[in-house]
Design a protein that fits this description.
- With 439 residues, the protein is mainly alpha-helical.
- The chain has 17 helices and no strands.
- It folds into two domains: 228 residues, no CATH class; 187 residues, no CATH class.
- α3 packs across α13, α4 runs antiparallel to α6 and α11 runs antiparallel to α12.
Length: 439
């Protein structure tokens, strides 16, 4: 078997295993944490963590930009260039983190946090320490998580998942121990565990990484602003893609359904979405490791491997369609067993959500190849244009179309983007891409 295929297979198996363990861990950590904190404290942590999640967007795509250039340098055996790309990215991210730290830590000191979180159970002083810890540790993850990106660039995608899942398992065990030996209701302890363990996980993972690859160890004298501009330009492209097609189209669905149909309809939609999203999770496990495998093949001129692998990815997509049709056939029975008769999900909603997930997966199939070859200009344009068209279409038809109308607009957006991106893939694979299609 081709060495690249062996690496790809191993990454898929390890990533799939880790995703399964991570899913179980995420289910277990909720009741254990709820048992330790009261409902209001848990709500405060959920609110805080959702705000901190936005910090990941402040890297303006630098991680993804660096990922491609680092993978290219490694494929060329130009490790000095790879070290410069890594060092330059870490320096820029550290500068961003310091600026964010000044702003948010300063705000945390002067704000009345009990009003911010709308609580009378905990005082402003009781909230301040966990808030500041969460900010500091989240900014630390902002930087050190790029250890995982280096593993991905080395075509060790599954190792990145392993780091994340092991950190979550350790956090789960520590919280369980807290329930036994530490008095209940200590929000600071929970925040400390859940935000510090991921930092330690990536720091520990960096030891074997740079021991086995000392030629990639960051050094300040390797900072290169020319590489910095290159990474920033490409990173901003990835940032626009993430913000538009991913965040706006996906993230605004609940808001539009609430506005046009009502909050109860959001529950109906999410039941169907969580069910059919299993197809997206499974397909993502298969295709995500392909990104930098495509990069490696592209740098080495192995277009035959790219062509065969892309066809296999499309075949797997076809299998998900068959599986999705089977899920659709039993969806009514599944909903009844899962949530009982209190929530009714119409077949029309299930059909629309299935169509949306299917075209979302197809688009991902194409963009993994495009991302791997670093030719994202068309993707930036389609993401922005179809996000605007989606918002316009939903605004005009959402009230009349109901849940189905909103979801059909999402499905149509991804269907057309998938068609355009698949056309670009064909041009790239056949070495016929010119102009914007090759940028």
């Amino acid at each position: 078997m081709n060495e690249r295929n062996v690496i790809l297979r191993n990454n898929i198996l390890l990533s799939g295993t880790m995703k399964a363990v991570g899913l179980v861990t995420s289910f277990l950590i909720v009741p254990i944490t709820l048992d330790y904190l009261d409902k209001e404290q848990y709500g405060i942590w959920m609110t805080l963590s959702s705000v901190l999640l936005w910090f990941s967007f402040f890297d303006v795509g630098l991680g993804n930009g660096m990922r491609n250039y680092l993978a290219q340098a490694i494929a060329e055996n130009n490790f000095e260039k790879g070290r410069s790309h890594l060092t330059t990215t870490l320096v820029m991210l550290t500068a961003i983190a310091l600026l964010l730290g000044i702003v948010f830590l300063g705000a945390g000191v002067v704000m009345n946090l009990s009003k911010v979180f709308n609580t009378t159970t905990l005082t402003d002083e009781q909230l301040r320490l966990p808030f500041l810890i969460a900010i500091i540790m989240t900014l630390a993850v902002f930087i050190v998580k790029n250890v995982g990106v280096v593993y991905i660039a080395l075509q060790k995608y599954g190792v990145n998942d392993l780091i994340i899942v092991l950190s979550n398992v350790v956090a789960l065990l520590l919280i369980f121990i807290c329930t036994l030996v530490v008095p209940k209701g200590n929000l600071t302890i929970i925040v400390l565990i859940l935000t510090t363990i991921p930092v330690l996980g990536f720091v520990v993972a960096s030891i074997p990484l740079f021991r086995h690859h000392p030629e990639l160890t960051p050094r300040l004298d390797c900072f290169d602003w020319n590489y910095g501009r290159q990474i920033l330009t490409k990173g901003i492209g990835f940032f626009f893609i993430q913000i538009t097609s991913c965040l706006v189209i996906f993230g605004s669905s609940n808001l539009f359904i609430t506005q046009f149909v009502g909050p109860e309809a959001v529950t109906t939609y999410n039941i169907a979405y969580k069910y059919f999203n299993l197809l997206a999770i499974a397909y993502t496990i298969v295709i995500s490791p392909m990104w930098n495998a495509y990069t490696d093949a592209y740098v080495k001129g192995d277009y035959a491997w790219i062509r065969i692998t892309h066809k296999r990815a499309l075949t797997v997509w076809g299998i998900t369609i068959v599986g999705g049709l089977a899920m659709l056939a039993i969806s009514g029975i599944f909903y009844q067993l899962w949530v009982g008769s209190s929530i009714s999900v119409p077949l029309s909603v299930s059909v629309c959500v299935f169509a949306y997930i299917s075209f979302y997966n197809l688009n991902n199939c194409a963009t993994m190849l495009i991302n791997g070859l670093n030719k994202i200009r068309v993707q930036i344009i389609t993401s922005v244009v179809f996000t605007l068209l989606y918002i316009a279409a939903v605004s005009q038809t959402g009230r009349q179309g109901g849940i189905e109308g909103v979801v059909i607009c999402m499905a149509a957006s991804y269907a057309i983007m998938a068609a355009i991106h698949l056309y670009q893939c064909r041009l790239l694979i056949n070495k016929k891409a010119k102009g914007i299609w090759n940028q």
